Each structure stands twice: as structure tokens, then as C-alpha cells.
């Protein structure tokens, strides 16, 4: 139970999961542009990169972001950040460090990773009242947070660490209050399927 809501988890069968995935899965993923040259005009001049060669490949090293109230240490580890992708619909710039840790910034609002996650992992429910966000931590896990919409913005509701979603492989909403997800146990080669139901008291 979290606040006025109860989060319940139930196992589901593989057949049911696959059926629901075909109906609801792919349409929830926001498209992105992974080539900086294709995205730079949309990103604009507030963000500056330097083209470098890294391990024999061209990379774009972040030099400066011209935005007010941007956290002084945008990279908590102090590692260089590189262009990863741009999400035109949400106007979010995605960056990574050498450990592939996610760092994102909403170029409209200035919100960063803790509030917006990496849009690759974001899944909104059908009416937009709830969403899941996630970000890779550079140490082998994507950590997820359930958020609720308050007016035009999303606020954190609860971290979903208690569900052990580090091993989550797929997830999608099938209704306003029901999220399907699967987890993978690599040591056993076993995939398990579940649904999370949000009930209001």
C-alpha cells in the first residue's frame, strides 16, 4: 500500500502476456534519433558538443548546456558525457558516460534524469494519469519509478525497487490501472510474467 493506493502483483501465463503485448506493447515506445548530425538542428544552439574519435568511432562529447538552474554537477561521477539520442516528441536529450549511465535533460523544462528518466524506458498508461520511468545506473540495473500526473506535470509516486525489476525485460500498460511486465532469471534461463494492478481505496 502506498498512500491511498494498493499495488498488487499477480503472475500471468506466457500466452496471455504475448497476446497483450501484440495489442499494447510497441505503440508505447517513443521514437528517438540516435545520430547527432540528424538531430543537431532540432536540439538547437543551447547545447554544444565536440566531435571526437573514441575507440575508432566518432563520438560527440558534451561541452556546454546553456540553461538556467541546471545542476552544477550534471554528471555525479564527474565522467565525460556523450550524445546518445534525442527524443523530438518530448524534447529530451539523452546522454551517457563511459559506463553507459543515463543522464537526460528536458530541453523545455530543464528537468533531469531523476524526474524524467530515459524516455526509452518510459511507458504511459492509456489516459496519461500514470507512467513508469527508468534509467540505467551504469552498474547493471535499470531502476524504475511509478509517477502520477498532477495537472501538466508528473510527480514521483513510488520507486518500484521492491518488485526487483532490475531483471525486467518487457512491460506495457493494458489499461489505466494495469501494467504487464516480464522478468528474466539468467542463471536459470527462466522468464516470468506478471501484472501490476493499482487499486485506489
Describe, in short, the structure shown:
The chain has three helices and 13 strands, in the order βααβββββαβββββββ.
Order of helices and strands: EHHEEEEEHEEEEEEE
Count of separate structural domains: 2
Anisotropy-based shape: globular
Level of helix content? Answer: 10-25%
Radius of gyration: 18 Å
Mean pLDDT, to the nearest integer, reads: 87
Count of alpha and pi helical runs: 3
Query: What is the makeup of the main sheet?
Result: 4 strands, antiparallel
Structural class: mainly beta
What report would you give on this structure?
The structure is a single chain. It contains three helices and 13 strands. The radius of gyration is 18 Å and the shape is globular. Helix content is 11%, strand content 45%. It has helices spanning 14-24, 36-43, 113-116; strands at residues 5-11, 47-54, 57-65, 82-87, 92-96, 102-106, 123-124, 130-136, 142-150, 153-159, 168-173, 178-185, 190-200. A hairpin with a 4-residue loop joins β11 and β12 (178-185). The protein is mostly beta strands. The mean pLDDT is 87. The termini are close together. The chain folds into two domains: 1-30 and 122-201, no CATH class; 31-117, no CATH class. Strands 1-13-12-11 form a four-stranded antiparallel β-sheet, covered by helices on one side. A four-stranded antiparallel β-sheet has the order 7-8-9-10. Strands 4-5-6 form a three-stranded antiparallel β-sheet.
Pick out its properties:
201 residues; four-stranded antiparallel beta sheet
Topology, element by element:
Blueprint: E1 5-11, H1 14-24, H2 36-43, E2 47-54, E3 57-65, E4 82-87, E5 92-96, E6 102-106, H3 113-116, E7 123-124, E8 130-136, E9 142-150, E10 153-159, E11 168-173, E12 178-185, E13 190-200
Amino acid at each position: 500500500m502506498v498512500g491511498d493506493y494498493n499495488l498488487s502483483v499477480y503472475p500471468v501465463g506466457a500466452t496471455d502476456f504475448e497476446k497483450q503485448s501484440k495489442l499494447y506493447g510497441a505503440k508505447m515506445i517513443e521514437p528517438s534519433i540516435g545520430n547527432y548530425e540528424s538531430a543537431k538542428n532540432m536540439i538547437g544552439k543551447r547545447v554544444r558538443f565536440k566531435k571526437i574519435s573514441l575507440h575508432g568511432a566518432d563520438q560527440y562529447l558534451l561541452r556546454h548546456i546553456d540553461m538556467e538552474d541546471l545542476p552544477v554537477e550534471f554528471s555525479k561521477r564527474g565522467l565525460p558525457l556523450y550524445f546518445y539520442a534525442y527524443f523530438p516528441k518530448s524534447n529530451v536529450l539523452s546522454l551517457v558516460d563511459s559506463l553507459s549511465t543515463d543522464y537526460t535533460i528536458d530541453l523545455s523544462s530543464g528537468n533531469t534524469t531523476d524526474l524524467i528518466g530515459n524516455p526509452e524506458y518510459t511507458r504511459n498508461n492509456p489516459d496519461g494519469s500514470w507512467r513508469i520511468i527508468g534509467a540505467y545506473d551504469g552498474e547493471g540495473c535499470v531502476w524504475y519509478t511509478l509517477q502520477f500526473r498532477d495537472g501538466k506535470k508528473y510527480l514521483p509516486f513510488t520507486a518500484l525497487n521492491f518488485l526487483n525489476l532490475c531483471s525486467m525485460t518487457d512491460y506495457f500498460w493494458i489499461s489505466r490501472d494495469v501494467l504487464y511486465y516480464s522478468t528474466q532469471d539468467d542463471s536459470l534461463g527462466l522468464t516470468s510474467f506478471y501484472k501490476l494492478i493499482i487499486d485506489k481505496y
